[in-house]
Amino acid sequence: MNFNNKYFKNVIIFLIFVALVVFVFIVDKNVSKDNIISKGISTVVNPISGFFRNIGSSLREKMGGLSDEEIKDIDELNLKVKKLEEENRKLREVVIRSEALQNEYDMIKSSNFELIAADITSLNNNSWYDVFTINRGLKDGVEMGDSVVMSGDNTSDALEGLVGRVTGVYSDYSEITAITDDTVRVSIRTLRSGDGGILSGMKSGELKAYMFDQNSDVIVGDEIITSGLGGVIKKDIFVGEVSKVETDDTEMKKLVYIKPGVDFKHLRRVYVVK
To answer: CA 213, 198, 145, 124: dihedral to nearest 10 degrees?
Structure first.
C-alpha cells in the first residue's frame, strides 16, 4: 500500500469519527418536545446514519487491502452508528409521546366540557378499538350514553376528537363503543356549510358517512363535527376531516370518507364528557 492511499483512508476514518462526535453532541444538546426535533430526526438523522452504516463496507469493497487495525476502526464506527440509530428511535418515541401529552393537557385546560379521565383496561376484540372497557363507572359519575373523547392529533384547531359513547356502565368500569364500529350511528354536519349526515362505521382506516341530501355542499378538506341531533352524542365535537366525496346515483345519496380526528390505533386513555 502506498503512502497516499493509506493517508487517504486514515483521513476518511478520522472524518467519520469527527462527524459522529458532532452528531451525538447536536442530538444531546437539542432534544426537546418541539416539532423541529421530530422533523430533524426523520429527515436528517436517518440519511446520515444510513451513510455511516454503509461507509465501512464501501471502503472495503473499493479500496481493498485494509490493515487489521483499520478494519477494526471501521467495525467500531459501525457499532457506534447502530447505537446511534437505536437512540434516534427512542428519541422519536419520546417526541411523539411528548406531543400527545401536550395535546391532552391543552384539551383538559381549555375544554368547554366537564371531563372524566379514564384508562382503557381491555379490548373486546384483538384488532381494533371498536368496543373497549375503561376503569371508570357509576361511582365516578359515568352514565349510559355519555360521549367519549380524546385530544386531537394536531390536524385541526379542535381540542377534542370524538371516540364513541358509553354503551354499558357498572359500578367501577364501563364499556365504550367507538364510532369505528359499524353499528354506531352518529349525526354529523359540516362546519363550513352546515349540511348534515350520518356516520356509519369505518372502512380502510377512514370513517364512512352519508349526507342527508345528495346535493349537499361538502368538499374534501371540510371539517366534520357532531350535530347533536337525536341526543345520542353531544353537539359540536370534532369528528374529522373529509378526505373523499362520492355520489351514489343508485341509492341517490352522497357518501363521504373522513380522516378521524383521533388516532384509534394508539388509544390508551380517553375522557368521558359530562
So the answer is: 170
Report residue 84: phi and psi, to 5°. -65, -40
Cβ-contact 107, 159 below 8 angstroms: yes
Cell reading at 265: 390505533
| pTM strictly above 0.70 | no
- Under 8 Å CB-to-CB from 123, ≥6 apart: which residues? 129, 131, 132, 133
Phi, psi of 6 (to 5 degrees): -65, -40
Read off the pLDDT of residues 153-177 as tens digits, 9 standing for 90 and up: 544 555 789 999 999 999 999 999 9
Domains and their CATH numbers in the chain: 3-108 (no CATH), 115-273 (2.40.10.350)
- Model confidence pLDDT, tens digit, residues 61-77: 554 566 778 788 888 88
Q: Which residues have CB under 8 Å from 136's CB, separation 6+?
A: 116, 117, 118, 142, 172, 173, 174, 272
